[in-house]
Q: What sequence folds into this?
């Protein structure tokens, strides 16, 4: 005899429920299938672990003169500053030297730095340029000039040039450019 | 006459409501697609040592919203490329292995400058077809820190002749996100 599972309180009587009615009421609740779900979750997790890259690159903005020729100094002579980048040593032992000169071979108004306007560390270069920016204001036009001597095969590593450019930007100088190698010196090939 | 009654059979207790097999297949397809797509995207950045200036004034890669063409300048002194270069010529300090423009290699030779300029012009022309101007487009100069400056000046000059006004220099940055 099929017995109802509903028990009404206080009642002694057991109500009869047919087997068919029991089936129609619906079977016991079932869980969603977990095993495939776990598999898919692991797949997704693995995918994102492999694909996620934390960016370790950044950009220093710059601009190029329109004609792509050597940066010509400003017509007003007093406001063009050359930052000459030299390198002593080669490879891992290379060390940079930065010299700040005004165009037309007149020394820059000496900054209030002990060494004047030569620096071996980037921080020193920054201090010089900061003083220049403070005194010249918006008009200072800095040209980064790596010293390249084809005859003696001296060269300057890109990282020193970037460092000089970076210090000029850090000193908030608005116009900074690169002096290009001339046609004959272009590239080592 | 008794009415004919249609008996509806409910599903038995063990049957799954939603069929999981096609779902898993689609998931695998998506995963494979994204893996391959991300590999295409990273192909234009070659493996090299970027310069890391003192107190960098760099800005984050994703803040620059312009379209770009990436030029990589690879150092011949890098152990990844040195063996290949040494087969052809001796490696001097500051030497370039080769250039990679938009994921495609440009070997060193007589026409390297023209080739770089041609590719930059092509990339810029493609951008212009989409309505971009010089203000919306830049060259991303990714040069190994060990290469001699005049090799990178080549790229800057070629970019200038291709009428591309903006050049951004790629530098390494620390994980703290100082900039």
A:
């Amino acid at each position: 005899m099929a017995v109802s599972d509903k028990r009404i309180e206080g009642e002694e009587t057991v109500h009869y429920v047919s087997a068919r009615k029991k089936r129609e009421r619906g079977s016991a609740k079932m869980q969603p299938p977990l095993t495939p779900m776990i598999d898919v979750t692991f797949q997704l997790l693995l995918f994102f672990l492999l694909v996620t890259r934390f960016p370790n690159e950044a950009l220093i903005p710059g601009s190029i003169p329109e004609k792509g020729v050597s940066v010509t100094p400003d017509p007003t002579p007093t406001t063009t500053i050359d930052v000459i980048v030299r390198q002593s040593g080669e490879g891992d032992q290379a060390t940079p030297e930065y010299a700040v000169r005004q165009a037309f071979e007149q020394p820059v108004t000496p900054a209030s730095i002990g060494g004047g306007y030569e620096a071996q560390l980037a921080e020193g270069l920054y201090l010089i340029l900061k003083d220049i920016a403070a005194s010249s204001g918006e008009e200072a036009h800095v040209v980064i000039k790596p010293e390249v001597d084809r005859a003696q095969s001296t060269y300057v590593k890109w990282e020193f040039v970037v460092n000089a450019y970076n210090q000029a930007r850090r000193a908030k100088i608005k116009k900074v450019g690169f002096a290009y190698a001339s046609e004959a010196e272009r590239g080592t090939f | 006459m008794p009415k004919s009654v249609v008996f509806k059979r409910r599903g038995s207790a063990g049957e799954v409501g939603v069929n999981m097999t096609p779902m898993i297949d689609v998931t695998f397809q998506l995963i494979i697609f994204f893996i391959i797509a991300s590999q295409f995207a990273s192909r234009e950045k070659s493996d090299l040592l970027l310069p890391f200036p003192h107190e960098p004034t760099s800005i984050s890669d994703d803040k620059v919203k312009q379209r770009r063409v990436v030029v990589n300048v690879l150092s011949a002194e890098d152990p990844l490329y040195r063996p290949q270069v040494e087969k052809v010529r001796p490696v001097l300090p500051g030497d370039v292995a080769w250039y990679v423009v938009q994921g495609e290699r440009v070997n060193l030779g007589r026409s390297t400058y023209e080739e770089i300029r041609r590719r930059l012009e092509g990339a810029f022309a493609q951008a212009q077809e989409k309505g971009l101007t010089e203000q919306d487009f830049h060259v991303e100069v990714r040069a190994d820190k060990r290469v001699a400056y005049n090799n990178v000046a080549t790229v800057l000059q070629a970019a200038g002749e291709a009428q591309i006004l903006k050049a951004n220099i790629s530098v390494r940055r620390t994980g703290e996100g100082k900039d």
